[in-house]
Protein 1
Amino acid sequence: MENKNQHIILKTEDLSIGYTSKKAKTIVANNINIELKRGELVGLIGANGIGKSTLLRTLTQVQNPLSGSIHLNKKNVLDYNPLDLAKVMSLVLTGQITSKNLSVLELVALGRQPYTNWVGNLSENDITVINNALLQTNIEALKHRKCFELSDGQLQKVMIARALAQDTDLIILDEPTTHLDMYHKAYILKLLQRLAKETNKTILFSSHEIDLAIQLCDNLIVMTNDVVISGQPCNLIKKGVFETLFPKDLIAFDEKTGSFRVKK
Amino acid sequence: MFNLIAKRLINLIFESLNLFNLKNFILIFILISFFGCKKEQNIPEMPINTTKKSNIAYAEGFSITNGVNFNILEIKNPWPKAEKNFKYVLISAESAAKTTFADDAYDGIIITPIEKIVVTSTTHIPALELLNVEKTLVGFPGTDYVSSKKTRARIDSKLVRELGKNEGLNTEVLLSIHPNLVVAFGVDGKSKSLQTIKNANIPVVYNGDWVENSPLAKAEWIKFFGALYNKEQEAETLFKQIETDYNAAKKLALNTKNKPTVLCGAMHKDIWYLPNGESTEAQLLKDANTNYLWSETTGKGSLSLNFEVVFNKARTASLWFSPSYYTSLEALEKGSKHYTAFDAFKNKKVYSFSNTTGKTGGVTYYELGTARPDLVLKDIIKICHPELLKNYEPYFFKPLL
Amino acid sequence: MVKTQSYKITFTLLILLALILFFINLNLGSVNITLKDFFSSFFTYEKNYSTPEYIIQSYRLPKAITAVLVGSGLGISGLLMQTMFRNPLAGPFVLGITSGASLGVALVIMGASLLGGFATHFLMNEWSIVIAASLGSFLVLLIVLIVSSKVRDTMAILIIGLMFGSITAAIVSVLAYFSSAEELQQYIFWGFGSLGDLQWKELKIFAIVYAIGLVFTIAAIKGLNTLLLGENYAKSLGLNIKRNRIIIVIAASLLAGTITAFAGPIAFIGLAVPHLTRLLFNTSNHKILLPAVFILGAIIMLICDSIAQLPNSDYTLPINAITSLVGAPVVIWLLVRKRKMMF
């Protein structure tokens, strides 16, 4: 369970996220204090529009926080230069990649960019890491196929393999299970759980699959209207956090099964 | 956007004059309005059998028919591929008061002699001066181009108004000086400044001297101006003199044994433009008894040839005439290093009229050259056969230094 | 990596083809030149050239080299722009380079009469057109970059470049309206593009600037490949997006700008050659694409020039007409065959 000596990979202090325009500041969420430890699978859940994407974008430095700080490996994220940051944190995003004309191998190899020389040549070590990533995500057989030939599920695995090849302490995935059927949703999340254990990397993902997240994650970050809570799934259930997630008219949270059921 | 202007200009440049006569084209189209002088009496036009065509030997673009009370000036080919002829009546003021003409019978009724004239090309000015009527010139578009000293003096004394440059003819100023006639030239019959001038009842005549096919035909248009000023006899005499001098020089040149090879023109980028064998320039070279290397070519407009072809044929040509607008050998070299490989360049036998200009930069050849082909021919003869015409100094062509 | 063997064969064949076409280009022209004269021209002193030798050495050879530089340079520049903007319709001139060059040249040729004596003296200088074109394209580029540094979205830069293109075109129209026939003719002929107009000393300067552009291009290879994933991923992989953008823009501008300055605006090559290369090599990896585009661009330009020379006839066609006439159908045919756009 909780190992007090576990290394904290990511920590936020009084983080406040949102948007600024010339006229006003829009606060999406504040007082965010979360910790992610090494080797954990952490799910980020919440209703639509609650700010999951904003939080992820803030954590991944795509947009700036309104206030507060983020620390990666005990160092403020702002003190990292882009190259060092790339060696600590990698992403898997939703949305199409620009060039589907790449082969699977070429795409995964791009994950090694922070480590290669100025022209992008791969060393032997790089090739080993790439091959490992392919093995771990079970896509060895697809190595030479072009990405536009793959199904959504296969493509998702390729993107995860790429993030693995980047060999970072933290991997952040934005809704990795949209577009996938139920089987593949479970497959991907199970894969993430296995990877977290095997590689000792911290994996943070946002998702709408609350029941799967509850079953598979070591830790959950739940965003509600008022507050951002994090903790182990069982604890959060006990606290009744999930009951306040959604309006109660249509669905209700069933503690026993750890899932939402439609009201009759 | 720009491509339309580009296309039009290319047609303009290629189909009209070749290199020697590259003019500044100003498009004016001034429509003729009819003199509807309605009197009670209707005096009919005169029958054909009392008319007599005046003698025009070379020019094909105009004819003058002399009648009792008025003359008829017909312009036949004011621009290449013109589809209609223009007929004008030349009549004195008193006769005009007594005569009615049917609408649409003529393109204009012109009261002669002209007292105030606007011309639009420098080629029109020598005729006025030779006939001693240059004082009737009241306006000209692009006065900087005028090189003749006499007219320049009038321009400087503000007796000749500036009517605009390039595309924009200033109709307001033109109307304010009340000319009796505007001598225009059309390139393709399309125009600007239409409506205002149409309404002002100013007759416009097209001068097609630049369309003519031979040097003497172009010079013969002095008779066109003669008719406008009731000075037909004088024009006849002047032209006769030019013709005689021209033919005398031509005969003189035929007696020589030496027939030097001649190259003309210059390049834009790597395309060489030179006159084709049927052009006036080529005819002058032929009449001067030279071997212009492309004298066998035919067609209208300049030849545009690849550098290789010209170099291959004319590298060893003895003389080089009219390399575009370059004014010195240094400028020529800067234009393209390839020019220096020609023998004519190496031997400094390059001749151009670009350095003979008026005070404001107008090239004299473009102005006077059309009216005085005898001088042009003599220039060429003197340059090509230095042993002839011992006392003659070339007027237009000077060697490039 | 993948199938490097087959790439080696394709590359060797292409290089051979390029050399053969170079040789053919030198031997085709309006004037028939024997092979004997051709070879002897390489061994004669310049001042002793016979007419055919002069044509080969002083006219066709510089022209062929120009064709190689222009074709390869425009192809590379186009590839850079297509990757940077992730837009298959981008070409080397989307940043307003031709517009800037046209404006500079228009000012020198047509604005000279407005500026009076000083300008005519400047015009006498054989470098005036080149300098004007370079300055013009550099200035427009600078303005586009300054404006786009205030903008985050790369797509906006594309639009800004196009807008500046319209502005410069408008200014050129005004200049054209007030200029004389000779000036207009000169400007129009510059716009036709011309490969055969360069002397050896001009070619030297051209080659030097071209080489600098190439150096910048090579420096950008890694970033270009990273950009294939999109800007967000690129950033997460440690790519300094702003710096990379600047390197790519400098590389593309040096190449396209110097080509436009020396040879005039040449259409279509920058847009088509990267597509043809992608289709032929079936890859998006810039380590392969860049050299491939280099060779293929040179090949296509040599072919176009040989056609434009209308061998054995006295006439020549403007190069721009040929590049479009030859290039467009080829791209259409390839796309129809492969039935989808590789990008």
Protein 2
Amino acid sequence: MSTTSSVDALQRTLAAEHAAIFVFGALGGRASELSDAPLRSALSAAYDVHLERRNQLRTMVTTAGGHPVAAEPAYRLPRPLTNADQIKAEALRIERACVTTYAALVAASAGPDRLWAVVALAATAVGERAFGGRPEPLPGLDA
Amino acid sequence: MRKPVREAPGDRVAGVSGSLLSRRALLRLGGAVGVLGAGLLGGCDLDPGSSSTPTAVPPSDPDQHIVQAARAELSGLVLRLSATAGAGSLVACHRVQLAALDGDPASTTRRGRPLTPAQTVAREHRAAERFTHWAVTCQNGDLARVLASIAAGIRMQPVLGDAS
């Protein structure tokens, strides 16, 4: 039986995935006019990863006895997002926020859910390099 | 007991970030409370009639062996990497991680044998896998978060990224 706090943490992570999917979709659209093929590829890959995690989290929330939270109608995007550097910076911000969210889920969960969060944390932290992220000793931890 | 989550208005992604407590505070709360609590229990006597036969059993920290092993892993890496050319950034990384576990700063005077590049990659891989395992198996959630972060921090280092 999952605790209320673990279900809440799963729901918060799911909400973060909804937001990430929205933002990466928008960033991909913005990047489609740029000639930066590696960036477009990285955005597409990140979108796919978050989509898959969103689906997994919906199942995890349901299994834990919760009703998966829905996405918001829209999410606020920073302006402007007209060049590769701006798009990379926003992508990196989203990935870092997700890393912090996964770390919170690690703390609030156990068993398979925690394993999922540990793996997602590491994969997303490593993936930050595609958007200009630099190695950190303790990704996802608030100072 | 889980920590409060701060939500930033208008930003659902940022709003799902973690706690407001520092990791050191969390570790002290989570890991040291058992030891501290044991000392307090041993020194208090709530029932004067039973003072000659103390029955309080110090609660053991179920994660103590993991914390000790994690500190030893990082200390060992710092020791060996300190003697390894070009490993300065890795040493700095592991020192920060060791401090997050409230580990004693690794000695700057003692030096282990230097590692070859292949050995460095192997040791870092092994450490990342161990920290991942410890993060999944420890009981304290806040400790798990720190261990998972350390595992991710090791995997982020260029020495592993370049090797993969």
